[in-house]
Every structure is written in C-alpha cells, then in structure tokens.
Amino acid sequence: MAKTRMTKTLGVERLPTRYPGDLTLGGFVDHQTMRFVRDYPHPPALVWRALTDPAQLGVWLWPCKSFEAKLGGVGVFDPGREFQIRVTEFEPLRLLNLGGLFRFELTAQDAGCRLTVDLKRPPDGWSPMGLAGFHGWLGRLGRLLAGAPQDETEAWASGIWNAVFHHCEWEVRRCVADGAKVIWRVHFPESDAGLTSEAAAQLHELARLL
Length: 210
What we know:
Layout: E1 7-9, E2 12-14, E3 27-30, E4 33-40, H1 44-52, H2 54-60, E5 64-67, E6 74-77, E7 83-91, E8 95-98, E9 102-109, E10 112-120, H3 128-146, H4 150-175, H5 197-209
Antiparallel strand pairs: 1-2, 3-4, 4-10, 5-6, 6-7, 7-8, 8-9, 9-10
C-alpha cells in the first residue's frame, strides 16, 4: 500500500493519499493486447514530457541512459542489463510507440488528459508478474506528475505488484488461456537441481498441449 503509517487529525485516521489510477486495473481487449487507462488532472504536455524525457523516464519506468523523441529514434535503458528500443510511432503530444510493444496515446479532456496504454504480447508470452509490474510503473508515473515525495512513491511501489498480481493472473487465465492454469515460473527445490513435483506436472501438461 502507499503508506503503512497513518496520521491522526482530530481523532480521525487519515488514509494514505491515492493517485489517479491506483484503483484502476488493466484488462485484455484481445489475446494480443493488454490495456491500461489513466485519467490525469494535468495538461497533455506535462504527461508527454514524462513519456519522452530521459530523466523522467528513469524515475517512473526504467533507468534511462538516452531517449531520442522522434520517429525511428532509439531509447537506451538499463534496468540491470542494457537494452535498446526503437520508436515505431510518433506524433508529438499524442502518440508514442516503443518497439511495437508499448503504445501510449494521449487525448485531452476537460482540464486534464487521458492516457491509454496498450501492451502487446511479448515474444516469450504474457507474464502476470510483468503486467502487475506495469500497474506499478504507471503508479510511479502518476506520483511523478503529482510531485509526490520519492520515499512515498517507493513505499507504495514496493508492495503494489503483489496486491494486483492475482488480478493479472486471473485476466491471463480468463481471457488468453481459455481457463487453463497460468504457468509463469517453474520451481526447483532449494539447493536442488531437480524440479518440484508440481513443476514436473506443469511441464508435462505443457508438453501435452504443445
């Protein structure tokens, strides 16, 4: 959660601050696309800068070494292992597509804007943990835009993926896997190269399906 410590004002507990999208979960629009929608009380230009400025990308997404905000431009990220991703769609203040996998679209509404994020199925398939992580990244973005203290952001982000993981697992199972159990990691016994009995059964079932 955002904060485990609560303060009291006039004897009334004050809950941690919620930011846009904290309670809004993503969902599949087809087998290949997971969508997140966030409404912000900020002008599109402010959100656009957070999507394209290397320093701000490094705060809410991944550590960013450089980012070329143009069609065909390259972003260089290093969340522990450096990789590059190319900009495949680009319309200033409106549309940004990173490698065909992450599509961000901004639309103005009232005094703020709506951000629609479409994630495309990665080559190694959907990961409930990865999807839950993206909910966390968007939460970081909302807090960055609002000017939230970094320690507050980190306290929220450290636990949110676990809070929404089961929703993401349920979405994959219901919308992509036709109800089959989602296998997203294989377990080995501690200090043992052998599979657990559960993991062996999972791999046997996967081989049967293939």
